[in-house]
Amino acid sequence: MKKKILYTLLTILAVFITYAAYVINNPVSPLETVSSDDSDVSITYSRPFKNDRLIFGNESDEALVPYDNYWRTGANRHTYIENNRDLSIDGNTLFPGKYSIYTIPGENEWEVFFNSNVNYFGVSRPNESDDILSVKVPVVKLLNEIEQFTIEFENDSIFNYISLKWDLTKVMIPFK
Asked: Where are the domains of the chain?
């Protein structure tokens, strides 16, 4: 009788460990790191999928990311940026280091924050006193839907940009 209970408990434990290992190695929102062309700047974030959900919108419409509310800018853990050189963002300097990025999306404009606290899970907004800088950027409406949240580096003849795209929304954070 004791052996049967022991084997049952060991089987349950083995199933749990196998499941936990699977979930850790195959997250629903996979982790990705993107780097600038010169590799001086990288961003690590989790990439959720749209999956037929309303992504950006009003809280009353049950949007996944409601307007005018804190968003960790990705899924799972917070999104963070690592830079090996000074970055000029909206006339402010982001010195070399590692910073979390979070946003407050709006219908026409987003506020993007760079925060010195990189050791939090991301469910709640980090302490505002740790914000290094923030910038407001306009929303660009896309014609083609982006299924999976994507962060990319883009550039033109004047600026480099951190581009955040998901669903039919894109914002571009200019930096030099």
From this structure: 29-175
Residues near 30 by Cβ (< 8 Å), separated by ≥ 6? 46, 47
Report how far residue 115's alpha carbon sits from residue 132's, in angstroms, rounded to the nearest whole number. 5
Residue-level length of the chain? 176
Structure tokens that stand for 56 in this block: 């950006």
Token pair, residue 107, equals 């219908």
Amino acid at 140: V
62-74 confidence digits (pLDDT tens)? 999 999 999 999 9
DSSP string, 45-74: EE--B-TT---EE-GGGT-SEETTS-B-SS
pLDDT mean over 25-29: 65
CA 45 to chain centroid, in Å, comes to: 5
